[in-house]
Amino acid sequence: MTGRGPRALRENGLSLFFGGIFVAAVAGQAVSGLALVNREQVAAGLDPLTAGQYLTSSAFLVDLTENWQSEFLQFLLFIGATVWLLQRGSPESKNLDSAGRESDEEQRVGAYAAPSSPSWARRRGWRLGLYSHSLTLVMGAIFLGSWLTQSLTGAVAYSEEQMRDLQDPVTWTEYLTLPDFWSRTLQNWQSEFLAVLCMVVFAVFLRERGSPESKPVGAPHGATGVES
């Protein structure tokens, strides 16, 4: 491919692909969710919502953010766990003798940084410490933010249902102790943990030719930390 535009598309194809299907999925969720909510509104003798009203409603936001927080929790735990925990034969694991934070030389930081290394990798002190954990810090912040949004909007949505049934609404702290909140939360968490477990274990024995998430097709099952 030639030209600045085609080259940029090629070099950023993975992020563009997943960004595009993410937007499409959110749009599909919004359309189908609005139809479902309005069917319930009409059945209850209430006026249907506009698209703008639905997109800013607790009903839409709680469904959106409860999935986000579980996804970011999955990656947060996976990134942190793979520093110390190993899985023989899995390309998702480091080599069996590489558990831990690794040395400055192995991480190419400080005096061992290359001229092309990020500027903060060549520093010492708090800048290097912060940059050394920047991925988990950002993932953790997004998880906490989406979890907080889910819990707040979930409390509002739950209270609205309560009032429609002529029952008392609940506060945010009360909602955090209810089965409704933890049922919604844990059913998302368990699916993410299962997906990571399957990826780690299946990749020991199964292959996908050309994928960096897979070992080479001819690699032995016991080869650990080897990617295509």
User: What composes the largest sheet?
Assistant: none
Globally, the shape reads elongated
> What is the residue-averaged pLDDT?
92
Indicate the radius of gyration in whole angstroms.
23 Å
Number of domains: 2
Roughly what percent helix? 55-70%
- What is the chain-wise order of helices and strands? HHHHHHHHH
Individual helix count: 9
End-to-end Cα distance, whole Å, is 24 Å
Structural class: mainly alpha
**Strand percentage:** under 5%
What's the total number of strands?
Answer: 0
Poorly predicted regions: none
Gist?
By secondary structure, the protein is mainly α. The chain has helices at 4-11, 13-43, 51-55, 58-84, 104-107, 126-132, 134-164, 172-175, 179-205.
